[in-house]
Amino acid sequence: MSANIVLDAKSRVERGKNAMNRLRADGLVPVTVYGGSESAVSTSIVKREFTALLRHYGRNKIIYLNIDGVVNPVKIAELQIDPIKSTLIHADLVRIFMTDITTFNVPIKIIGEPEGVKHFSGVLDIVTHELEIECLPGDLPDSIVVDVTPLNIGDHFDVSDIKLDEKVKIMLDPSTVIATVVSPRAEEEAASSTEAPAEPEVIKKGKTEES
Fold first, then answer.
1. Is the pLDDT of residue 189 over 70?
2. Domain assignment of residue 114, yes or no
């Protein structure tokens, strides 16, 4: 577990498009915090600080949000990205409680070079990149490590092969494939099938054209 991540926020009263645009022009991100028995709260966070946090930790971390001196643990529920500029324009954060079992999405970290890749020119295909888990917030892992070294051609690593502390429960089907090693030929065939040109469209002449 890493040290607590603290992020400062300020409550805001102004609403509406113009108010949001002014916040963004000042380098702030509008944020809505909700969850639990408390009412939703509108806040703003320094965009530079928030995006730096996202780059370093990803979005699957517990954040201790300090709103005007009151600190609450939260997790990211939704990020709204500008479709043209690809910049963060709004965030929804949900309150969590350290004594309640909570659902998280945790990234998978692949390590090792598969035997089938190293010795037989196979191709590693990573099928699943994150896992949905349930645990107490204090037991949340930063990532789930999957060692693919033993995999040979045709082998796969499933959810059932992951060994975690009993405090952490994986919510996916145990047969879900995390990674597999395929032969170079299978990879080439798959690529060629997706790149095959579409058959030319045949335009039938109807009575209107004939007439």
1. no
2. yes
Q: Domain range holding 175?
A: 103-193
Q: Is residue 205 part of a domain?
A: no
CA distance 125 to 193: 17
**Alpha helices by DSSP H, the chain:** 17-25, 47-57, 115-120, 184-195, 207-210
Q: Enter the tokens of residue 179.
A: 């990674």
pLDDT, tens digit (0-9, with 9 covering 90-100), for 28-59: 999 999 988 788 999 999 999 999 999 888 88
Pick from 97, 99, 106, 192: which is nearest to 142 by CA? 106
More confident residue, 168 or 196: 168
- 10 closest CA partner among 167, 23, 150, 1: 23
Q: Are residues 84 and 158 in the same domain?
A: no
Is the pLDDT score of 194 beyond 80?
A: no
Both 85 and 129 in one domain: the answer is: no
User: Within 10 A of 33 (CB to CB), how many other CB atoms are there?
Assistant: 23
